[in-house]
Amino acid sequence: MAMTSTMHTSPSSKTLAEWVRDARQRTLALVADLKDEQLLGPRLSIVNPLLWEIGHIAWFQEKWVLRQASKQPPIRCDADALYDSAAVPHDVRWDLPLPARAETLRYLGSVCDNVLARIEARPAEDLFYFVQLSVFHEDMHGEAFLYARQTLGYPAPPFLSTPHASTLEGGALSGDVAISGGAFLLGAAATESFVFDNEKWAHAVQVKPFHIARVAVTQAEFAAFVEDGGYCRQTLWTPEGWHWRESSGAQHPVYWRRVPGNGWQRRGFDHWVPLEPHHPVLHVNWYESEAYCRWAGRRLPTETEWEVAAAAEPAHGGQGFSPRKRHFPWGDGFPGSQHANLSGKRLGSISVGSLPAGDSAFGCRQMVGNVWEWTASDFLPYPGFVADPYKEYSQPWFGTHKVLRGGCWATQARLLRNTWRNFYTPDRRDVWAGFRTCAL
Ligand code: FE
Asked: Measured in angstroms, how far is the CA atom of residue 147 from the centroid of ligand 1?
């Protein structure tokens, strides 16, 4: 089966330098308003001390772009002992002799200047690979900074703008689309300029016909599950899910509270707001998503079904899929604000019915952006998996994590494509994750 995908060429040295500057600017903007004690923060398993994380971003970029690809000596002799995430256990990161904010930012600045100089001096493929890796790594930590601010109840960073209600309120949209089965190439094509090891490579899978929701599950829909005693009915939960529910004592999504006589509110950063009925439910874990599905007589899509719904096109006049596979749900063009809610350009999520220009060929909306979507699938290697130089990226997490797809409002657009696989343990509720469902 010959399925084609448009070649996505490597960024030019000019684009790459812009990305390096842009990612760095975002990192600085994400922490600039925080006090020193907020940069350390409480000892939690789901966040890093932000001061450590800033230094870690610099260390990662230095390690791969300057030390590995450019054979330069280390800038700081203590950097590996402080910032190597594979070597420094999470719970000791608060106890390290971390340099203070000003010194950490100086380290960040000197790595950045040096990387920009290398891009100009030696615009070579291997260097560009590691520069992209370091930018995308910084983008992922940028999203982590944002959800850490949510977790810790810090204010939204001041650079986030408020959405334009008129352009974003698409109202409700519901129902399923029917997708015929057929042969599909799951994963990234070798024509891609940069992909992570867990996306390699496209391989043939057989897909049975299925029906998938046009939009993600909304806050109003999830509230109906909560109100119907969803968190009290063991029969709706898998054994592991019920064990999690019992031990956590969860009665509703983590950032929700009931206001007597006035429904529910949810916390966005340091503000409590009424539920937005047509926005996607956020901050639910895999267990909560599964329990909702059982209650609704639905199921989570597999990651293959998700990728088919986002990337495939129906074959002309018949069953199966066309040979073309889309880079994004709407086609191959880079995400614009009319396609997807990405890059933190808006303050948070938007209505699931908005942005019809971003629909997939089958009419699924917002498959990219707004909210990460849990899938039914375990995070596993594709056939023939070989770890890339950053060995700790995927391999340690196979088998224990679930796959999420599509990115959320806080994810940088340059990071994403239809084949992009994110992965978290099924108990994580701190990330901007929701889900869409399939018919049984
Ligand atoms: Fe990292």
From this structure: 15
Domain that holds residue 134: 13-151
Kindly state whether residues 117 and 258 are assigned to the same domain. no
CB 390 within 8 A of CB 134: no
Residue 143 CA to ligand 1 centre (angstroms): 11
Ligand 1 center–CA 325 separation, angstroms? 31
Domain boundary among 122, 151, 180: 151
Interval between CA 27 and ligand 1 midpoint (Å) = 13
**Do 164 and 143 share a domain, yes or no?**
no
Dist. CA 139 → ligand 1 center (Å): 10
How far apart are alpha carbons 375 and 403 in whole angstroms?
A: 6
Least confident of 110-114, 142-146, 258-262, 309-313: 258-262
Which residues does residue 105 pair with via DSSP β-bridges, in sequence order? none
| Tens of pLDDT, residues 208-261 | 999 999 999 999 999 999 999 999 999 999 999 999 999 999 999 999 999 998
Do 180 and 47 share a structural domain?
Answer: no
CA of 375 to the centre of ligand 1 (A): 24
The band of 6, judged by pLDDT with boundaries at 50, 70 and 90, is very low
Rounded to whole angstroms, the Cα distance separating 36 from 438 reads 46
Give domain status of residue 279, yes or no: yes
Across residues 399-403, what is the average pLDDT?
98
pTM here is: 0.95
Rounded to the nearest whole angstrom, what is the distance from the C-alpha of residue 391 to the centroid of ligand 1?
12
C-alpha to C-alpha distance for 61 and 130, rounded to whole angstroms: 8
Check whether residue 72 and residue 197 sit in a common domain.
no
Could you give the CA distance from residue 63 to residue 70 in angstroms, rounded to a whole number? 10
Q: Ligand 1: distance of its center to the CA of 76 in Å?
A: 18
Q: How far is the CA of 326 from the centre of ligand 1 (A)?
A: 29
Cα 130 to Cα 12, 60, 134: the distances in Å are: 14, 10, 6
CB contact set of 50 (below 8 Å; sequence gap of 6+): 31, 34, 38, 39, 40, 41, 145, 148
The domain total for the chain is 2
Structural contact between residues 176 and 213, judged by C-beta atoms closer than 8 angstroms: yes
Q: Which amino acid is at 364?
A: C
Cα–ligand 1 centroid distance for 137 (angstroms): 6
pLDDT confidence tier of residue 167, bands split at 50, 70 and 90: very low
Calculate how far, in angstroms, residue 202's C-alpha sits from the geometric centre of ligand 1.
26
